[in-house]
Specification:
Helices cover about 60% and strands about 0% of the residues. It has about 160 residues and is mostly helical. The protein has a domain of about 90 residues. The longest helix has about 90 residues. This is Transport and Golgi organization protein 1 homolog.
Length: about 160
């Protein structure tokens, strides 16, 4: 009997150790699953936040597209109105339908070779540009101090000192 009791107690101890090992493994597996659940919940929350941000951006772009579409329609409408009024004005004014070309007004100088100067004056108006470069600047022309005519102060208040 002692031996049976000893065998049973060893077997009981062995089963307790196995039970403890299984409980420890179960606890570890539970911890791993909880961690994986937390990771998945965080990813789901991040994805939800990203989707909300993208939805807001999409809505903003839709509003902007609608605004630009409206602006384009308004500009096209304005352009059509301008064409309509221009066409209508041209229909009412026959003298504007065949507009005179530039330089054909009465009193305009004849244009020859793209210049309104006669050939002699065109040669005089040309600047001498040779290999030495443009002519040297000699300064402004000298003017006499007094050009003649009435003094600018005549009739405006008292005369300046020294003019009595």
């Amino acid at each position: 009997m002692k031996e049976n009791l000893k065998l049973v107690s060893e077997e009981t101890l062995k089963y307790k150790q196995q039970k403890d090992q299984i409980q420890e493994q179960l606890q570890q597996a539970e911890n791993v699953y909880r961690f994986q659940i937390c990771v998945c919940e965080n990813k789901a929350q991040d994805n939800w936040i990203k989707s909300r941000i993208l939805e807001r951006e999409l809505e903003k772009q839709r509003r902007e597209a609608a605004y630009w579409k409206y602006r384009l329609e308004m500009m096209e409408r304005k352009k059509q109105e301008e064409r309509y009024w221009t066409k209508r004005q041209m229909q009412g004014r026959p003298e504007m339908q065949n507009c005179p070309q530039r330089g054909s007004e009465p009193g305009a100088a004849p244009v020859r070779n793209g210049s309104s100067f006669p050939p002699e004056e065109a040669k005089e108006a040309q600047v001498n540009m040779d290999a030495r470069g443009p002519p040297r600047f000699r300064g402004p022309p000298s003017m006499p101090d007094y050009m003649g005519g009435p003094s600018p102060f005549v009739g405006y208040g008292p005369s300046p000192p020294g003019s009595h």
